[in-house]
Every structure is written in structure tokens, then in C-alpha cells.
Design a protein that fits this description.
It is found in: Cytoplasmic vesicle membrane; Endomembrane system; Golgi apparatus. The protein is an alpha+beta fold. It is built from 35 helices and ten strands. Strands 3-4-5-8-7 form a five-stranded antiparallel beta sheet, with no helix packed on it. Strands 6-9-10 form a three-stranded antiparallel beta sheet, with no helix packed on it. Strands 1-2 form a two-stranded antiparallel sheet.
């Protein structure tokens, strides 16, 4: 059987000539049978050839595990041809998950002790490729000795093996500290590159090593300056750049050594300036060195002028024809925009040009950077550019672009009219892509700008007459027409073109919204309410409005039906109350009356809590004093001091009576998550009428410089509880303290058992997908007792 076995070249040719996969399997199965028979017979002369064929079969994806023990035999063989194939087989067929890999530890140790460079190189390559933690601990002394061997070939492979050992077993760092300091004086580029890589691994894993190697910063600076200024042999030159691999590795090590260290940073400042100004950028190798220089400048305590130079280099990258380089530049500038905002602002025109890139990944990065560059001085120009991009951008970017424009307008709007115009243009262009809270925000903005009511309602009426497909725009327009419809029919507004509108036209437009197939149920609700409000805003006959309400009184949509039935009742039974019920909404300033109301409520709760501690006798005497008022004044009765006649205080004192139920004390809020500016808080409410029900409001805020997108919060509770998750207010948490995202959880706890809550968060932040799963066990006892 062995005699009929194929040679490796013949096997490769026969497999390539197979017409079908079945023919290929047949050839391989037949040859694997010959290989097994050869292994059983123990043919020492042809074992390495059989194993070589088996390794080729393994590379094609077929099982070859039966050759593992043959690898061990060949490694132990004194012949170099056997060792070479045996070590190759060990690297391909063995790994840490198989116990057989530990059997070659002694063979590797013996080969490392030999003086044959080729055998030592094979052993070191195998150890660095598949050495486990146990093997690294056993063989570390041998590798340490080889680091100082006279042969450059062995020293280079020993350094690379040491890098693998440090990654596997960080506690071995102490062994390699002294040899590394000596190897830095090497002139062999391969050894020097491996040594710098080894020192980088040591500094990242050991604070003691970091402090020790900060002393060699001047030596690293001299080495890099030599590479940059004097160059080296053509053997190490890549596209005219002197050994870019070594330059990049030295720059990475300098970045680690100079981080948060003033003296080291000062030593390398001049060198970094030389590298930045003397590196050729016409080739990709030079761009790689320049990019690593920029990262080093930004990560150490460099001078202000040097940081500006780094930003300018990234600005030049934006003009490069290579898309990969432009993408790297945009990503780096996005990270620097918070710390070096003014320097990045100089390249704003180039960044805006990148918005027109056909590559979606590039235009997305350019959009994120453009939004980060918006401030109070350039908000008009930048918003105009972004709105132009919104009209032609791919659908995948429309939601991010629309949300970014709305957030920028909210933060930096110069006037309320400009703010309203900007939001209206976004809703007209990409209304279906805006955030869920855009409608409420615009309604609040228009309501607070009393001087712009007439202007806003005319703008919205024109936009609604032209297009009723953008649902958020239709909802805002319906609300404004219902609220300020009387201003729509008045004389021309000074700030808009003359507009002559009749009552029938307004009613017909709203009825068209109600009948449109594109209208959502929420939009129909806005339109129905607007029609009802117009019955008090516009003069004349309301029969047509009554007919519409009657029609929708039998609508299949329960929400619309309920509204229509209630509005019909207002017409028929409570017509005298209709004007008062439908009067205009009061002006609400964000953060004004709401904050005052919360403060007032907290004050009332505190007073109620104090009232609960009053002795029973005092409460009883107050009750008798109140009852005395029914029988007239008594001369002997001792009345309490006169109360402040303000309505609020009167209400508070009336609630002090024992006959009135005391509301429960507020449940304290709880912070359950915080990472990179994203914070998650839980607030709790237990309705008095349903004590087994707990309402949890999940509030997500973001203080970082980048939006948190595709945010999803999922919750789980034990089986004895019932959990219902309401729809969140959105899936984006805006950056820098924008409007928070909220979601309501309804938990029914019939047994009043201690509550445990498990949350899973998934979101995208700073260009990375994040998933966090954690359990909340420290919920206040008030949530379940």
C-alpha cells in the first residue's frame, strides 16, 4: 500500500484535476488511507513525506487529527528534515485546547539548548505560534538566554517569542526587562523592531516597566531621528521611506511613554515636529508614519503649536485621493474636535466637501464631524450646508442628519423665527426620519413664541396644502391650525406673503388629512382635535364640523371614536362649556413653570410628611375647631392662629385633616449605569389605587461629545412578576446633555416580593457597537413593600 502512495506534487496535481467535489473526496480518502498505513508501519524514511501530504490535506479543510502523534515523533527525530516537517505539523495541527501539545515541551527545550541555529529557529517559531501559558512558564529561562546569543537570526526569533510569552503570561515581565535595555543598542533592524514591540507590550502591562523605560526615551528619540534625517540602506527602504515599520513602532512606544508625563513629552516634541515636516506624503508608507505621528502628538502633553500642526496634517489627508486615508482623517478629527475645536474649525470647508462623497462610510463620518463643528458663530452657514445634504443624502443617513440639524438648531438658534424655519424645512424634506420628540419640541417652540403665531400658522398651512405625506409636519400643522386658526383668516401678516384663506378651505384641508390613506392614527387625532378647536376659533356655522364628528363617532379606531364621541357630547349636551374647554393652550416655557411646579410639589410633600407626625390629640382638636364653625362662634373655644388666605396654603391646611388620605412619600431615584458619558437613571411611581403596580421610568442622558444611536433597552424580571415595556421616546440619545430618552416599564407584583431587574442595553457610540447586561438588585424597598 505504501508503494502505491503518491508523491506530494502528484497528489496536488490529481486533486486539482478532479472535476467534481466527489472525485476530490475520493482521491483524498484513498491517499489518507495510505498515510495511515504508513504511520502504522512506522516507516522512518518516508514519515516526513507522508506528514507533508497530510498537512496539505489539512489546508484543504479535511480532517487530519490522526497525524498529531506523528508530529511529536518527527520533532524528537535527530534529522533536520524530520524536525522541519514535524514542527510545521505541530503549528498547524496542535493548539492549547489539546493536551498533546504539552508533550513537545521537553523536545523544544532540548532543541533550544542545542547550538544549531536552524533547529533553534524552528523551536522558537513553534513556541511563539502555539505555546500555551504552561509551556511559556517552563521555557522562559531558555528564551531569556537566547535573547543575548551572538546570532542575529536566533536573537530576532527569541524576541518575537518573548512577545508571545508576555501576552500569554504577563507576570513573566521581570525576566525580560534587563535584556530589553541591552537589545535597544542593536543595529539590526529586525531585532530592533522586535525589541521595541516587546518593550511596548511590557509597558502596557506593567507600571514598573513603564517607569523604567521612560529613561530610554532619549535613546529612542535618537534612533528615530537617525531614521528620518539620515535614512538607511535600500534594504529597509519602502517607497523611499526609511523602514516605516520601525518608525511606526517607535512612535507607538513613544506615545505610551509620553502619556501623562511632562518630561518625556518635552523630550520628544522637537523630534515629532521633524517627523511631521520631513516625511514624504506621496506614498502610503509616508502617510502611515505621519498618521502615527499625529496620534502620538495628540496623546502626549505636546505643545499647542505641535497640536495645530497635527490637525493640519489630518486636514491634508482630507485632500488625498485615497478614500481610506480620508476616512482615517475624518475619524481622527472627530476625536479631536472636543479638545482642539478651533484648529479643526479651519478645515470646515474641506469637511463639508466630504459630505458629497459617494462612499456612504465617508459621508457618514463627514456628517458626524460636520455636526460636531456647529457652534453659535457658524450655525446659519453649517445648517444651510447640512440641509442641502439632507435633500440628497442616502436614506441610511437621513435620520442621523435630520436629528443632528434639529439638535444643532435647538442649541445654537440665533432667533426663534430662524429656529422655526429650520425645523419646518427639515420636516418638509425628511419628516418621516426625524426623532420622535420633534413634533412636541416644535409645538412647544411655536407656543412660546407669541409674536410668531401668525407667521407660523401661515407657513404651516402652505406646507400642509402642498404635501400631506410627511406625518410629523402634518401633526404640527394640524395643531397650529387648530390653536391659531383665527390668525390664519385675519389680514396679511407682515412677515409673510399675503394669504387669503376661507373657512371652508381650512376645514376641507383638515378633512383631507382625516381621509388620507397616508395619515397615521395619531395624525388623524391631531386633525380631529383641530377641527373641534376651529369650532370656537372661526365664526359661522359649525354644522359641517358636527357632521365630521358624527361620522367618526363610529370609526373602527378606538382612539378616534372616543374623541369623536366626546366632542359630539360637547356639541349636544355641554355646548355652553365648549368655548372654555377648547380655549387656547397657555404658554409654557421649558424649564420655567415646570421646575417651579416640581419645587412646589416637593414643598407640599414635605409639609404633608410633617403633618403626618402631628399627635392625635392636636389633630382631634383641629377637627373640633372646624366642626365649631358649623354651630357658630363660641366664646370659650380656643381657635388656632389665623391662616394665610392664599389658596395654596388653605388647600395644604385642609389636607392636614386626618380624614384626608396622605399621599405616599416619593421613592428616591436610582442611577444604575454610567459609561463614557451615557447615564441611565430609574424613577419609580406606585399608583395609590393599584398598590401592586410599579411604574418605572428609564431615563437615558448623554454628556459625551457623540450621539448614542440605535439605543435599545430591554428588561427581564422573575416569573412571579408581570412586565410590560412601553415604546421608548426614541432610539437616539443626543450628545452634550441634549433631550433625554425615556421609556416606561409597568411591573405587576401581586405577591409584593422583593424586586430584581435585569437590563440589557445595546447601542452605537463613538463608532462602536456596545452591549451591556447587568442586574439591578439595590432597588428601594418602597418599590415592593
Amino acid at each position: 500500500m505504501v508503494a502505491s502512495s503518491l508523491k506530494l506534487q502528484d497528489l496536488i496535481q490529481e486533486i486539482r484535476e478532479a472535476k467534481t467535489q466527489a472525485q476530490e473526496r475520493e482521491v483524498i480518502q484513498k491517499e489518507c488511507a495510505h498515510i495511515r498505513a504508513s504511520f502504522r508501519d512506522g516507516d522512518p524514511l518516508h514519515s516526513h513525506r507522508q506528514l507533508a501530504k497530510l498537512l496539505y490535506v489539512h489546508m484543504l479543510g479535511y480532517p487530519a487529527h490522526f497525524g498529531q502523534m506523528e508530529c511529536l515523533k518527527l520533532i524528537a527525530s535527530p534529522r533536520f528534515t524530520d524536525k522541519r516537517v514535524g514542527y510545521l505539523g505541530a503549528m498547524l495541527l496542535l493548539d492549547e485546547r489539546q493536551d498533546a501539545h504539552l508533550l513537545i515541551t521537553n523536545s523544544i527545550k532540548n532543541d533550544l539548548s542545542q547550538g544549531i541555529e536552524a533547529v533553534q529557529g524552528l523551536a522558537l517559531c513553534t513556541l511563539s505560534a502555539m505555546g500555551s501559558a504552561e509551556m511559556c512558564r517552563d521555557l522562559a529561562p531558555e528564551v531569556e538566554k537566547l535573547l543575548l546569543q551572538p546570532s542575529p537570526y536566533v536573537r530576532k526569533k527569541a524576541v518575537l517569542t518573548a512577545v508571545h510569552m508576555i501576552r500569554k503570561v504577563p507576570e513573566l515581565s521581570e525576566i525580560f526587562l534587563t535584556p530589553c535595555a541591552q537589545l535597544l543598542h542593536e543595529r539590526h533592524h529586525g531585532i530592533l523592531l522586535g525589541t521595541v514591540t516587546l518593550i511596548t507590550e511590557l509597558c502596557e502591562r506593567s507600571p514598573a516597566a513603564l517607569q523604567r523605560f521612560r529613561k530610554v526615551v532619549p535613546q529612542l528619540v535618537r534612533t528615530l531621528r537617525t531614521l528620518v534625517m539620515t535614512g538607511c540602506s535600500t534594504e529597509h527602504s519602502v517607497s523611499g521611506v526609511s523602514d516605516p515599520f520601525l518608525q511606526v513602532q517607535i512612535l507607538r512606544l513613544l506615545r505610551i511613554l509620553g502619556r501623562n508625563h511632562e518630561e518625556s513629552s518635552e523630550t520628544m516634541n522637537d523630534l515629532l515636529a521633524q517627523v511631521a515636516t520631513n516625511t514624504d506624503t506621496s506614498r502610503n508608507a509616508g502617510n502611515a508614519v505621519l498618521f502615527e505621528t499625529v496620534l502620538t502628538i495628540m496623546d502626549i502633553r505636546s505643545a499647542a503649536g505641535l497640536r495645530v500642526l497635527a490637525v493640519n496634517i489630518l486636514g491634508r489627508f482630507l485632500l488625498n485621493s485615497d478614500r481610506n486615508i480620508r476616512y482615517v482623517a475624518l475619524t481622527s478629527l472627530l476625536k479631536l474636535v472636543q479638545s482642539d475645536h478651533s484648529a479643526v474649525q479651519r478645515h470646515r470647508p474641506t469637511v463639508v466637501e466630504c459630505l458629497r462623497e459617494p462612499d456612504v462610510s465617508l459621508s457618514r463620518r463627514a456628517l458626524e464631524l460636520s455636526l460636531a463643528l456647529v457652534n453659535s458663530s457658524n450655525v446659519r452657514a453649517m445648517t444651510q450646508e447640512l440641509q442641502g445634504f439632507l435633500e440628497s443624502c442616502p436614506p441610511d443617513l437621513r435620520a442621523d442628519c435630520a436629528s443632528g440639524i434639529l439638535l444643532a438648531a435647538e442649541r445654537f438658534a440665533p432667533t426663534k423665527r430662524w429656529h422655526i424655519d429650520t425645523i419646518l424645512r427639515v420636516l418638509t424634506t425628511a419628516g418621516t426620519y426625524v426623532r420622535d420628540d420633534a413634533v412636541a419640541n416644535l409645538i412647544q417652540l411655536i407656543g412660546s413664541a407669541q409674536e410668531l403665531h401668525a407667521y407660523s400658522v401661515r407657513r404651516l398651512y402652505r406646507a400642509l396644502a402642498e404635501d400631506i405625506s410627511q406625518q410629523p409636519l402634518v401633526q404640527v400643522a394640524a395643531w397650529c391650525i387648530g390653536e391659531y386658526g383665527d390668525l390664519l383668516l385675519e389680514g396679511a401678516c407682515e412677515e409673510t406673503e399675503p394669504l387669503q384663506v376661507e373657512k371652508e378651505e381650512v376645514l376641507a384641508l383638515l378633512e383631507r388629512v382625516l381621509q388620507s390613506q397616508m395619515s397615521l392614527p395619531a395624525t388623524r387625532g391631531y386633525a380631529l382635535t383641530a377641527l373641534m378647536k376651529l369650532s370656537t376659533r372661526l365664526h359661522g356655522d359649525n354644522n359641517h364640523i358636527c357632521q365630521v364628528m358624527s361620522i367618526y363617532g363610529s370609526c373602527q379606531d378606538v382612539e378616534l371614536q372616543q374623541r369623536a364621541v366626546e366632542y359630539n357630547a360637547l356639541f349636544r349636551k355641554y355646548d355652553h362649556l365648549r368655548a372654555a374647554v377648547l380655549e387656547k393652550m397657555p404658554l409654557v416655557e421649558r424649564g420655567g413653570p415646570q421646575v417651579d411646579e416640581e419645587a412646589k410639589e416637593s414643598k407640599e410633600v414635605a409639609q404633608l410628611s410633617e403633618a403626618a407626625t402631628v399627635p392625635t390629640e392636636t389633630q382631634a382638636s383641629k377637627l373640633l375647631d372646624l366642626l365649631d364653625l358649623l354651630d357658630g362662634p363660641s366664646e370659650n373655644a380656643q381657635h388656632p392662629p389665623p391662616l394665610d388666605p392664599t389658596p395654596g396654603d388653605t388647600l395644604i391646611h385642609l389636607l392636614d385633616l386626618p380624614c384626608a388620605p396622605l399621599p405616599p412619600a416619593p421613592i428616591p431615584k436610582l442611577k444604575v449605569f454610567e459609561r463614557e458619558g451615557l447615564q441611565l437613571n430609574l424613577s419609580f411611581v406606585r399608583p395609590p389605587e393599584t398598590p401592586t403596580l410599579l411604574l418605572i421610568t428609564v431615563t437615558a442622558t448623554n454628556t459625551s461629545g457623540d450621539d448614542v444611536t440605535h439605543f435599545i433597552c430591554q428588561a427581564a424580571v422573575p416569573k412571579s412578576f408581570q412586565l410590560q415595556l412601553q415604546a421608548p421616546s426614541g432610539d437616539t440619545v443626543p450628545a452634550q446633555g441634549g433631550l433625554p430618552m425615556t421609556q416606561l416599564l409597568r411591573i405587576l407584583n401581586p405577591n409584593k416580593a422583593p424586586l430584581r431587574l435585569k437590563l440589557r442595553l445595546t447601542y452605537d457610540h463613538f463608532g462602536q457597537s456596545v452591549q451591556e447586561i447587568f442586574e439591578v438588585n439595590n432597588l428601594p424597598v418602597e418599590t415592593w413593600q
